[in-house]
Amino acid sequence: MKSAPFTFQIDLPGGCPTYFEHHLERTLSAMQGQFLDGAAYDRLIKNGDPLLYEVFEISRPEVAGELIHGVSILRPGKVGEEFFMTKGHFHTVLDTSEIYHCLHGQGMMVMETPEGEWAVEALRPGVVLYVPPRWAHRSVNTGQQNLVTLFAYPGNAGHDYGTIESQGFRKLVVEQDGRLAIVDNPRWLPPAGRA
Ligand code: PA5
Ligand code: NI
Fold first, then answer.
1. Which of 113, 165, 166, 180 makes the best surface tag, with the fewest CB within 10 Å?
2. CA-to-CA distance for 169 and 189, rounded, in angstroms?
């Protein structure tokens, strides 16, 4: 890990940075139970468990003064009506934020708070999105090309995946009759119904 100032480049449209320390790949099987259409999910898994996204991370010490940053590359595709998406998470330290800069592709960021407030923001090249403290976030690729985003968040933030795995996001981004739609997730558990 570097301790002096450094730079790197992000080659577009591919999105792979010229410097990174950690490379993570998530295939569809990492998203068991997250897509609504279980039959479509099973078919895709049987046909080879496609790669959904990869993350190139510039790791930093997990302390408040640092910024963990990197590039997320989310592939295009759908599971039934639902577009390919990231797992999504709250930060373990809820009072930590994140910033995204969309570099390539088209998508949405689906967000919500523990109290059930929600927001969906469009991502296209040039858009900068600030995710305030307390807001869970999930990227969704609504386009035909890779969705490439640069992200940065405090080193102490941590990832809480379990809450979303068990309760889902309040809103889903789907294609219905050839149109993009933001619909209620019928399986979402409102805060009052949670254990
Ligand atoms: O920190 C972030 O929010 C991003 O770097 C995500 O980790 C990345 O987009 C992958 O998503 P997830 O961590 O929800 O699998
Ligand atoms: Ni995050």
1. 166
2. 9
Rg of the chain's alpha carbons, rounded to an integer? 16
Ligand nearest to the CA of 161: 1
Tokens of 155: 């080193």
Q: Is the pLDDT assigned to residue 12 strictly greater than 90?
A: yes
In percent, how much of the chain has pLDDT > 90?
Answer: 95
- Provide the residue type at 37 as one letter: D
Structure tokens at 194: 């949670």
Residue 2 contacts residue 60 (beta carbons within 8 Å): no
The Å distance, Cα 107 to ligand 2 centre, comes to 16
Which distant-in-sequence residues (6+ apart) come within 8 Å of 162 by Cβ? none
Q: Taking residues 120-149, what's their average pLDDT? A: 98
Ligand 1 binding pocket includes 141 (Cβ within 6 Å)? no
Closest to 145 (Cα-Cα) out of 21, 10, 12, 23 = 12
Cα–Cα distance for residue pair 147/56, rounded to 1 Å: 14
pLDDT score recorded for residue 193: 67
Which residue, 13, 152, 176, is CA-closest to 82?
176
How far, in Å, CA of 40 to CA of 22, rounded? 31
Q: Which of helix, strand or coil describes residue 124?
A: coil
How many Å apart are CA 9 and CA 12, to the nearest integer? 9
The reported pTM is: 0.96
